[in-house]
Give the backbone structure.
Amino acid sequence: MVLCMDATPRLREQACFALYTASRAVIGLYRPLLDRLGLTYPQFLVLMALWESDGRTVTDLGDALQLDSGTVSPLLKRLEAAGFVERRRGSNGDERRVTVHLTESGAALESRGCEITQVVGGASGMSHDELIALRDKLNEFTQAIRTRETATE
Amino acid sequence: MVLCMDATPRLREQACFALYTASRAVIGLYRPLLDRLGLTYPQFLVLMALWESDGRTVTDLGDALQLDSGTVSPLLKRLEAAGFVERRRGSNGDERRVTVHLTESGAALESRGCEITQVVGGASGMSHDELIALRDKLNEFTQAIRTRETATE
DNA sequence: CACGATTGAGTTGTGCACAATTAAGTTGTG
DNA sequence: CACAACTTAATTGTGCACAACTCAATCGTG
C-alpha cells in the first residue's frame, strides 16, 4: 500500500499522461502521410514486420507488435482486402497456423514507407542520437512494467 | 523529400513504435487497478482534470486531454451513467456550453486515484527524477510535433 | 491408440480515437 | 434588426485494443 502524500495528482505532471499524449500525437503525424498509401498506423506496423521477415504467422506478428489475435486478425483481414498481404492456412503442415505474405503491392510500399519514418523522425525536433536515447529509455520503461504487470498487489 | 538511405526500417528500432508500445503497456498496468474503481484510463483522466478544477466545460476538458468532442462526449455520458459526474447545460448563460461536475461519488475517488498513480509510478522501475526527465522529454517531443503537424509537405 | 490439455486463429462485445457531419445557440456586421 | 459566420456539443461511421469466448487442430500421456 502506498500512502498518498501529495495533493491532487495533476494531469500535466503525470509521466503516463505525457506518454499517452505523445503516442497519439506522433501517430497523428503519421496519419496524413499513411493515408496516401491507404494505411493506418497499426497496418503500417504489420507491413514493417513483414518487410523485415515475410511469411510470419499471426501469433509471431502479434508478438512483434504486442497485440493479441483479437486485434491482429481483423487487421490482417483489412490488409488482405486492400491487397497488401495474403493469408495461407496450414502452409507448414499445421492446419492451425496461418502465415501472412506480402503481395507485390505490399512489398512495393517499402521504400515509400521508409521515407515516411524519416519524415516523421525529422519532425520530432530531436537529433538522431536523442531519438535513440528516448527509444531506449521507453523500451526500458516498457520492460520494467511488463515484469511487474501482475505483481501490483 | 527525404531520401531513404537505410535498409528496411526495423520495428524495434523505431522510436515511435517504442512510444506506442510503452503507452499501451502503462495503460495496461493501470487497467486492473482502475477496474476496481469501475474506471477506464481515459475516464480516470477526466476525473483527474475535474479533481484539479471542477465544473469545466466539455471543450475545456477536451483541451486538457487533447481529445475532441467526438471522444469526450460519449465518455462523459458513460461517466454520468456510472454516477461519477453530472452534466449541466447552459449553467453560465450560454445554452451551447455544458459544464461537467463531480458527484459526491466521483469526488470520493480522488484519494484512491492518487494512490493508483503512485503504485504505477513505482512499477516503472525509474526514480522520481528519471520519471520527471522522461515526462519533460515527452512533452517537448509532443510540442515539437504539434508545431510541425500540418507542415509535412 | 485414446483423450484431456494445449495451441492458434478467429469472433463477439465494449470502449476509446478521430474524421466528418449535424444542429442549436451566439456573435459580428451592415 | 437581419443574417451570415462562428462556436459548442453531440452523432455517425471506421478502425483499433482488449477481454472473453469459440472451435478446430495438435500434442502429451497413459
Observations:
- The longest helix of chain A spans residues 15-35.
